[in-house]
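Changelog note: in this version the structure field was regenerated for every chain. One regenerated record is shown below for reference.
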Amino acid sequence: MDGDTNMILCCGEALIDMIPDADGAYVPHVGGAVLNTAVALGRLGVPTGLITGLSSDPFGAMIAAHMTASDVSTAHVVRSARNTTLAFVHLDQGQATYTFYDEGTATREINPDDIDPVPSDIEAIFFGGISLCNPPVADSLLTLAIAQPERRLVMADPNIRPSFVSDHDGYRARLNALIGRADIIKLSDDDLNWIEPGDASLADKAQAILAKGPKMFLLTEGSEGATAYLQGGRHLHVPATKATVVDTVGAGDTFNAGCLAALRAADALKPEGLATLPEDTLRDMLTLAARTAAITVSRAGANPPWANELD
């Protein structure tokens, strides 16, 4: 897929999730929030590339093979001999929490000069995950986001891990700057309450996010479904697709991919048109996102569906 044009470019971490098996032994699986979104897009048939740090170690080879197998271009990765980031996954009744080991790793140590200019034919660019938490990669990605031309759609999902952030004030400032540039921001209810603390309703907090600049805000509430809020006061809610939950690893990442894939299919990856999207387009977007996420939670690990699984 390295020769494809008009692709969506995802920017952030690719890592190894160490997930316990039935005996409690940790088994390596390719993961990372942004890689999961790229993989989900590739499997949905969307031309996709990934800007990430890719190690020359054996785990880096696993990640590269996984990207290729899921039709994600490796043309934009930043290669180095630094170690791969590891995330140890702790599961409690299917809910995942993480312990990260990333100092000095291939993804963490990305500087602005390491990233090649974004090709002119990139349709949209996505940012998210723990790569936004700590410098230098966090500052490098913010610089890249702010540099994007207004015509190119920018989407971001911080996927907040407060325990991983070394400087909370710096992180909030970075997120607010990213929110101010992004055309679409996606947050879970927990993420929204962290960014906008206080007793206001989720709907009021959604409006506070829109007031910072995005044209669309997507709120996910797990089993309660998802809501799209648009500039101008419109909003649309879609219930969650019923699923038997094995674990939640990769659910939100797959949701992001479903939204981008649906907008691309509707020829709606255009910042200027987001606020006036027809209701049917909004509903189709949220429905596809919910369906893809439901399949992901129904099986172990971050294993997004292929397009033919949605037929």
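Spot check on this record: Residues 279-297 form the longest helix (19 residues). The helical segments are 33-43, 58-69, 137-146, 168-181, 189-195, 202-210, 251-265, 279-297.
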